[in-house]
Amino acid sequence: MAAMTAAAKRTALVLGASGGIGGAVARALRDAGWTVRALKRGLAAEAEHRDGLHWLRGDALDPQAVQRAAQGCSVIVHAVNPPGYRRWNEQVLPMLDNTIAAATARGATVVLPGTVYNFGPDVFPEPAEDAPQRPLTRKGAIRVEMERRLREGAVRGQFQAIVLRAGDFFGPGAANNWFSQGLVTPGRPVRQIQQPGSDGVGHQWAYLPDVAAAMAALIARRDTLPAFAPFHFEGHWDADGRQMAAAIQRVVQRRAGTTPRIGRFPWWAVRLAQPVVPLFRELAEMRYLWCEPLRLRQTRLAAELARDGGVPHTPLELAVERTLESLGCLPAVPAEGLSRSTAGADARSAHPA
């Protein structure tokens, strides 16, 4: 029994491991020595071991499948979303309820990648972790309800909940985000960068490997955290709305020898197509985040991780380069040259915040 308990304390279930943030957290936990299970729809076999992860066939909407996958787990990472931004109203909360039920059954820790959607203009521009949540959007209201259910269950002592809120994700393996669907086109050389925001309006970005590393660090410290523990991840703050595009320009110039031009994101096309394209409807609803600055400060997170080396932080240009490589937007370079370039960039400016 003692051996089983010890194993359970280092076994995690990741829902959404096929996606950007879920996959990044699964790999971070795996690399930290955890046994990681991942639930995946449409898996050919009932179970398979791949990339150091234990994949199980099942759907996060199936309560029995989640319960089976969570057996012997002390942590459940809830990083799953409906595919293609469809049926959010119908699927998001039932999936979370399945996670809550599984965590309650075994007193596990639920870890939720949070967003800035929870907050409304009344707490702009820098809401604290415990600021009132009065969003004006449909997706924001769903996010608020997700956190409410987690907080309520945690306060009752049914399970522990950790929430790490962050800005727009970018990074290797991340497909459904503004970087890969708005700023550049995957699989093509970068000739033009589409800038969604207005000049002078700040915007927050979160590099997935850094977010995942911060989550793994919080999970490792979960025994010292309160029952409900919300944190903010600052990531990369683009103070004037131009820095991300400028970083892409510099990387492309260095790697490809060309300088892409910066243009405006075609919001007019989004407005026209939103009645029939679900993705565009979601983009239109969240446009306010490109019109007003909303910055998450990570004071609480930095204090919590101070003894563990600080908050993970990859320099912007290096993070952009790795992201563009994963999207197939940069020409290949010799492995030796890439190794020297990456090591040099890490040595020059990779400092924890």
Using brief descriptors, characterize the structure shown.
353 residues; alpha/beta; 8-stranded mixed sheet; 3-stranded mixed sheet; 13 strands; 42% helix; 17% strand; globular; disordered C terminus
Fold and architecture overview:
- The protein has an eight-stranded mixed β-sheet, with helices on both faces.
- It has helices at about 1-10, 20-30, 65-70, 90-105, 140-155, 180-185, 210-220, 245-255, 265-275, 280-285, 290, 300-305, 315-325, 335-350; strands at about 10-15, 35-40, 45-50, 55, 75-80, 110-115, 160-165, 170, 190-195, 205, 230, 235-240, 260-265.
- The protein is globular and about 55 Å long.
- The protein is α/β, with parallel strands linked by helices.
Summary, kept brief:
This protein has 14 helices and 13 strands. It has 353 residues and is an alpha/beta fold.
Quote the distance from N terminus to C terminus. 41 Å
Q: Structural class of the helices, strands and pairings?
A: alpha/beta
Placed side by side, the strands forming the largest sheet appear as 3-4-2-1-5-6-7-11
Radius of gyration: 20 Å
| Average pLDDT score | 91
Count up the helices.
14
Beta-strand percentage?
15-25%
